[in-house]
TrEMBL record:
Pathway: Glycan metabolism; pectin degradation; 2-dehydro-3-deoxy-D-gluconate from pectin: step 2/5. Keywords: Calcium, Lyase, Metal-binding, Signal. Pfam families: Pectate_lyase_4. The lineage of its organism: Eukaryota, Viridiplantae, Streptophyta, Embryophyta, Tracheophyta. The keyword Plastid does not apply. Its cofactor is Ca(2+). InterPro entries: AmbAllergen (IPR018082), Pec_lyase (IPR002022), Pectin_lyas_fold (IPR012334), Pectin_lyase_fold/virulence (IPR011050), PEL (IPR045032). Gene3D superfamilies: Single-stranded right-handed beta-helix, Pectin lyase-like (2.160.20.10). Residues 47-245 form the Pectate lyase domain. This is Pectate lyase. Its EC number is 4.2.2.2.
Length: 352
């Protein structure tokens, strides 16, 4: 198709993912400097489980020696400097989701999230005060609350090549207008496919958000919503309406430290509105300074919104049947297969 896509070589070796995100999450290293932890059990907890690896304090690159469903009975808390790398297997998380609380440098790659239940249950919840996060090539659907929830001062985050489906409140950035500390938040969402989800692609309060090369179709209420002080830069995305024709929505709310209510701002550059879609843009208010992504990062790969891009996003987002690359990192010898990977630290023999 001739598309020039971002981070095309990250599957050449296991840890090539580190620092290859585009946008605000570009510095996320995950467990780059840690040993391998191999998930050998689909149990909710215990030695060899995903939860057991995620709670360890040291950096770890977490891989899987099994495929299947992990039924989470409670939120799975992810500690700092972790890569949860689902390449080479097919892992589905259900029941509850991942919680990234006061952590940094986390990479989540090639997982499925489906069927989360319970009050305030999100597939991936990022709050409070987490930073340098990259969520890549995940499939997310059918959770009780949101699919991705970013709030309470969490920032420097990228979401890329994810597939969102069968859901209502998709991505929330900024929980409510009382959290004025969310003015620091910065999020990039690119090359994602929002496939018939109803709203919040995303909904934003306070944050600076860069959307590029996403495909959003058949929403039920709106595509993107800007509220209190948010600045959304929408670049070369494809918006394809069904019954609801307006893509952009604005909601007026009052920040806790302000006397007057306001909405947010959306700037559209090179976006494609098809099937009768109306942008719904409002004029920029005089005196308002809208940020540009180039103020924060120097380069990113953006394609014109075309049929070729739409085809790619329909078929190459979400979980992928990708081989687990070899690990050339000096901490762990390269092995020919997952079953023969040598762990220098035998984590599953540590006491709880």
């Amino acid at each position: 198709m001739g598309l020039v896509l971002p981070y095309a070589n990250v599957d050449s070796s296991l840890r090539a993912l580190a620092c290859k995100a585009e946008g605000f999450g570009r510095n996320a290293i995950g467990g780059l400097h840690g040993n391998l932890y191999c998930v050998t059990s689909l149990a909710d907890d215990g030695p060899g489980s995903l939860r057991y690896g995620c709670r360890q304090k040291e950096p770890l690159w977490i891989i899987f020696d099994v495929s299947g469903t992990i039924e989470l009975s409670s939120y799975l808390n992810v500690s700092s400097h972790k890569s949860i790398d689902g390449r080479g297997q097919r892992i589905k998380l259900t029941g509850k989701g991942l919680r990234l609380k006061e952590c940094e440098h986390v990479i989540i790659c090639n997982l499925e999230f489906e069927g989360g239940r319970g009050h305030d249950v999100d597939a991936i919840q990022i709050k409070p005060n987490s930073k340098h996060i990259w969520i890549d090539r995940c499939s997310l659907s059918d959770y009780a609350d949101g699919l991705i929830d970013i709030s309470r001062g969490s920032t420097e985050i990228t979401v890329s090549r994810c597939h969102f489906s069968n859901h209502d409140k998709t991505i929330l950035i900024g929980a409510d207008p009382s959290n004025i500390g969310d003015r620091c938040m910065r999020v990039t969402i690119h090359h994602c496919f929002f496939d018939g989800t109803r709203q919040r692609h995303p909904r934003v309060r306070f944050a600076k958000v860069h959307l590029f090369n996403n495909y959003t179709r058949n929403w039920g209420i709106y595509a993107v919503c800007a509220s209190v002080e948010s600045q959304i830069y929408s670049q070369c995305n494809i918006y394809e309406a069904a019954e609801k024709k307006v893509a952009f929505k604005y909601l007026t709310e009052k920040a806790a430290d302000c006397s007057e209510a306001c909405s947010g701002f959306i700037r559209s550059e090179g976006d494609l509105f098809v099937e009768g879609t109306q942008a719904g843009l409002t004029p920029m208010t005089s005196g308002i300074s809208m940020y540009h992504p180039s103020e924060h990062y120097t380069s990113w790969k953006v394609e014109s919104p075309s049929d070729a891009l739409k085809h790619f996003l329909q078929h190459n987002t979400g979980w992928q049947s990708t081989m687990l690359p070899a690990d050339n990192h000096p901490l762990v010898p390269q092995q020919p297969g997952v079953n023969q990977i040598i762990q220098e630290q035998n984590l599953d023999k540590r006491p709880e």
